[in-house]
Amino acid sequence: MRKGVMRPGHVQIRVLDLDEALQHYTDLLGLIEVDRDSQGRVYLKAWTEVDRFSVVLREDDSPGMDFMAFKCLDEAVVDGLAQELRAYGLPVEEIPAEELTGCGRRIRFQAPTGHFFELFATKEQTGKWGIHPSNPEAWPRDLKGMGVQRFDHCLLYGDDLDGTYDVFINILGFELAEQVMDPDGNRVAQFLTVSMKAHDVAFIKHGEKNKFHHASFYLETWEQVLRAADLIAMTDTSIDIGPTRHGLTNGQTIYFFDPSGNRNEVFCGGNYHYPDYPPITWDADQLGKAIFYHDRQLNERFLTALT
């Protein structure tokens, strides 16, 4: 049962060189820089997003994800979920308003897979970039690079999928849209949604906690994904796989790396999900086709290159 969590709100990503990373995320992906803070963090947004920011870059000695956040309907939802998380036995950290510029108070907890997540309800709304809210044009004419439309989801690797499933399904109100099962009936991949999307966050079984596979950004058409591939080649950006289609989620996709080694995805299309839809199940021996529908073969780097 959905409990008032609406959508992914932001992700904070660690990068080794902030200037290099910023060029990648703005000039290639087409995110827009909107702010910097006293901690040296840079705030970015995609052009269709109404909230002030969705991606935060922080320079550090190691790449990866600091945390992913979800926006809730209101502050009462945040309070209620914080109480449920504590009752479940998870420590909850209260983070004051404006610790992230333009964002209200957040609560942060660590999932059983080791990843940190946040819940919040209030963030300054600055509107779509370059689009007036009255009689809007179709798109802004000064977009750079791929012109990604939104931060869409993260794929994360960790050990305790069952515990994290329990938290996201039974406390946060997510639903299971797709899964991969091994021959013993264990879930080794879970794609969770709190919307109509194929997934808002996904987890893959892995021996280590708190590993980051990718942050994904949405494009509208397959032609835009192919254009993204051209831009990846033109800029000598390290490519991982694609353009291709997933079996899981049915999205059309390409994967590549930022200069720090964090993986990005841009994609279009994909399945949709309603609350009455049963989960789609893939067998683990069909994982090649599930991940790379056309080649039907696993790519070792795709499975093992993590930050």
Automatic annotation (TrEMBL):
It is an enzyme of class 1 (oxidoreductase). Pfam families: Diox-like_N, Glyoxalase. PROSITE patterns: EXTRADIOL_DIOXYGENAS, VOC. It comes from the Bacteria. SUPFAM superfamilies: Glyoxalase/Bleomycin resistance protein/Dihydroxybiphenyl dioxygenase (SSF54593). Its cofactor is Fe(2+). It catalyses: catechol + O2 = (2Z,4E)-2-hydroxy-6-oxohexa-2,4-dienoate + H(+). Its EC number is 1.13.11.2. Residues 7-122, 150-269 form the VOC domain. Transmembrane segments: none annotated. Keywords: Aromatic hydrocarbons catabolism, Dioxygenase, Iron, Metal-binding, Oxidoreductase, Repeat. The keyword Metal-binding applies. InterPro entries: Catechol_2-3_dOase, Fosfomycin_Res_Enzymes, Glyas_Bleomycin-R_OHBP_Dase, Glyas_Fos-R_dOase_dom, VOC_core, Xdiol_ring_cleave_dOase_1/2, XylE-like_N. GO terms for molecular function: catechol 2,3-dioxygenase activity. Belongs to the extradiol ring-cleavage dioxygenase family. NCBIfam families: catechol_2_3. PANTHER family: FOSFOMYCIN RESISTANCE PROTEIN FOSX, LYASE, PUTATIVE-RELATED-RELATED. Homotetramer. This is Metapyrocatechase. It comes from Isoalcanivorax beigongshangi.
